[in-house]
């Protein structure tokens, strides 16, 4: 791309226009951007030969300063459209993560190229340049577009990554990372995309491996709510100034765990399942145990010395563990479905991802509830001398090729695993999301958790554990999460679901027949012909009877093993080329719907039978 000619007229920003853009941006994102007084030394706005605006930036070439245009000096929009054609496209709902905004020509071309339900998440690392552009383009309509989000470094820490995580990991759209031509190697953008890949793979693998099993166990937990408590009820008893020590089972735990004997009731000691044996051997009694694993055996918790210690548990915890601890469990996590159960409606339990392991679940629980200080020990997220846990059990060994190196707490590199990296990333995301909770990493080894305060355990005890609390009294006789009446209402709800799934199957058969008719139309006639509008309206009406039901959320989020087989909520059927792959995809889904419904019915009925018997 050639340098801008020196004789091209230089345009000046319109301050009234810039103010409107800035005010709109602040209203939408609650982020304040400001003008750089030196912006004209870095940027220049000129016109292309066709009259379009062209943004230039100052560079040094062959020892002299020149103005380099970001776009074509002939026709910027045409150049952008040719570039957009090179971006791969699938005929399905898509999320684009875009690096750089500049003048928006590329974004406009992508909007034209991709389906109307595409979401665009732009990260512009150069705020000064963006504010400069605000003085030349009226971007208020773009900023108000619900499909577009324009993110800058002034967003709270983790802003760009958190946005991507919400729309990719917890959605089912096809995702693409799209850097603009000559975009910088921006660490925030590429680091976020890389972490989302790890998180997405982790979530997808987990759904394929244990999604159905997990939900069966969640429903089994619902049947116990009238005998056990829940996180929000326990938190009503605990002052937020009470320091919390989360004891994980990393290999360094034996280096400092004995120091817990010094603190008596000066901190709430929360012990993860696999660390329980270590505490018992040291003669240390925690105030709480915690487990979240769908598979892990209750043998980790079966210690006579801990038989009456309350157990913080996820709804999906292994049924054998739930049976063992029934009557002293505190359920910690609620999804949307659980927050609508009788007795839990409108109450907040744990709304965020548990983080993949027990210790991150503990930290997330106390951070969400606003505790001031959470101290971690034994949270290595790395191997130490070849050991992966503080105990001598073999569970958790990795294949040689699974080991990776990451930054250690002491400045060097440590041996870790992709799953542990996911756990570390979740810690870092929660630390950013809950800045009022200080995470103190007193592990004294292992991986570095960015954003944590690194101390020895002895230092952390001296700083934070200075007051004595009557913690056992706070945890005695916690109220149950449901009354007996609310329990019966929950049973009746599940019974209705069994019947509703029969209706899903019948409606799905009608949808499948209609989809086949529409596919033949798209192949051999013209689906955009108005005479087929009635069939399309009938399809929407039938689908609404399924997708607006609570069970649709359960099928989508917990039961259908490959979430990418789920059709988009809105079908794009504007022409035959667009309609054929959409209809084929939907037909595959509805052919599988009876199996998904029957197996979910069986699971619900089994839970009801177990609760009754």
How would you sum up the global shape? globular
Strand order of the largest sheet: 8-13-12-11-10-9-14-17-18
N→C terminal distance:
76 Å
Q: What's the number of helices?
A: 19
Look at the structure and give the mean pLDDT: 85
Low-confidence stretches: 200-209
Number of β-strand runs: 18
Main pleated sheet: 9 strands, parallel
Measured by DSSP, the beta-strand proportion falls in 5-15%
Helix content: 40-55%
Radius of gyration: 28 Å
Structural class: alpha/beta
Short description:
The protein has 613 residues and is of the alpha/beta class. The protein has 19 helices and 18 strands. Strands 8-13-12-11-10-9-14-17-18 form a nine-stranded parallel sheet, with helices on both faces. The protein has a four-stranded parallel sheet with strand order 6-5-4-7. A three-stranded antiparallel sheet has the order 1-2-3.
Strand and helix layout:
Layout: H1 15-29, H2 39-42, E1 43-47, E2 53-61, E3 64-69, H3 76-84, E4 94-99, H4 105-113, E5 119-123, H5 127-134, H6 140-144, E6 148-151, H7 159-169, E7 174-179, H8 187-222, E8 229-230, H9 231-235, E9 244-247, E10 268-272, H10 276-281, E11 288-291, E12 311-313, H11 319-325, E13 329-331, H12 358-368, E14 373-377, E15 403-407, E16 413-417, H13 418-433, E17 438-441, E18 453-454, H14 457-464, H15 471-474, H16 484-524, H17 533-547, H18 550-559, H19 576-612
Parallel strand pairs: 4-5, 4-7, 5-6, 8-13, 9-10, 9-14, 10-11, 11-12, 12-13, 14-17, 17-18
Antiparallel strand pairs: 1-2, 2-3, 15-16
Helix pairs in contact: 1-5, 3-4, 7-8, 8-13, 8-19, 12-13, 16-17, 16-19
């Amino acid at each position: 791309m050639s340098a801008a000619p020196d004789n091209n007229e230089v345009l000046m920003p319109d301050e009234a226009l810039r103010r409107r853009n800035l005010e709109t941006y602040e209203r939408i994102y609650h982020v304040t951007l400001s003008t750089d007084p030196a912006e004209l030394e870095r940027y220049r706005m000129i016109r292309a030969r066709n009259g379009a605006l062209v943004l230039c930036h100052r560079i040094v070439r062959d020892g002299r300063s020149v103005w380099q245009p970001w776009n074509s000096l002939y026709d910027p929009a045409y150049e952008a459209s040719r570039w957009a054609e090179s971006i791969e496209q699938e005929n399905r709902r898509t999320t684009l993560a875009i690096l750089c905004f500049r003048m928006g020509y590329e974004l406009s071309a992508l909007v034209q190229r991709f389906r109307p339900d595409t979401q665009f998440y732009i990260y512009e690392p150069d705020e000064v340049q963006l504010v400069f552009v605000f003085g030349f383009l009226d971007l208020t309509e773009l900023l108000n577009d619900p499909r577009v989000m324009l993110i800058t470094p002034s967003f709270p820490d983790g802003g760009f990554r958190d946005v991507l995580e919400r729309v990719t990991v917890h959605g089912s759209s096809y995702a693409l990372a799209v850097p603009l031509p000559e975009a910088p190697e921006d660490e925030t953008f590429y680091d976020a995309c890389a972490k989302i890949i790890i998180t997405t793979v982790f979530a997808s693998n987990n759904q394929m491996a244990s999604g159905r099993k997990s939900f069966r166990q969640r429903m089994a937990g619902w049947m116990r709510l009238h005998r056990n408590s829940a996180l929000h009820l326990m938190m009503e008893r605990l002052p937020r100034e009470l320091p919390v020590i989360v004891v994980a089972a990393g290999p360094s735990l034996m280096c400092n765990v004995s120091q817990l004997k010094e603190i008596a009731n000066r901190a709430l000691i929360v012990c993860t399942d696999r660390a329980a044996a270590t505490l018992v051997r040291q003669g240390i009694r925690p105030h709480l145990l915690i487990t979240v694993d769908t598979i892990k055996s209750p043998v980790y918790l079966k210690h006579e010395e801990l038989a009456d210690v309350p157990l913080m548990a996820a709804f999906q915890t292994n049924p054998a563990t739930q049976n063992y601890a029934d009557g002293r469990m505190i359920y910690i996590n609620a999804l949307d479905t659980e927050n609508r159960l009788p007795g839990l409606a409108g109450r907040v339990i744990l709304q965020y991802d548990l983080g993949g392991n027990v210790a991150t679940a503990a930290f997330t629980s106390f951070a969400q509830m606003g505790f001031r200080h959470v101290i971690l020990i034994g949270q290595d997220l790395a191997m130490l001398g070849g050991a992966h846990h503080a105990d001598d059990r073999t569970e958790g060994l990795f294949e040689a090729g699974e080991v990776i190196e990451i930054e250690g707490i002491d400045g060097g590199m440590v041996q870790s695993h992709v799953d542990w990296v996911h756990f570390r990333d979740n810690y870092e995301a929660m630390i950013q999301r809950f800045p009022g909770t200080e995470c103190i990493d007193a592990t004294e080894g292992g991986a570095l958790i960015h954003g944590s305060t690194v101390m020895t355990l002895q230092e952390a005890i001296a700083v934070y554990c200075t007051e004595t609390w009557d913690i056992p009294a706070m945890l005695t006789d916690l109220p149950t999460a449901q009354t007996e009446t609310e329990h019966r209402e929950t049973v009746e709800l599940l019974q209705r679901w069994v019947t509703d799934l029969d209706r899903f199957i019948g409606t799905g058969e009608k949808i499948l027949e209609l989809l086949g008719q529409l596919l033949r139309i798209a192949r051999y006639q013209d689906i955009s012909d108005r005479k087929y509008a009635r069939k399309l309206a009938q399809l929407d009406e039938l689908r609404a009877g399924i997708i607006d039901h609570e069970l649709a959320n359960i099928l989508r989020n917990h039961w259908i093993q490959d979430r990418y087989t789920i059709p988009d909520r809105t079908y794009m059927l504007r022409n035959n080329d667009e309609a054929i792959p959409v209809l084929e995809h939907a037909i595959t889904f509805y052919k599988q719907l009876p199996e998904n419904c029957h197996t979910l019915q069986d699971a619900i009925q089994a839970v009801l039978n177990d609760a009754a018997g």
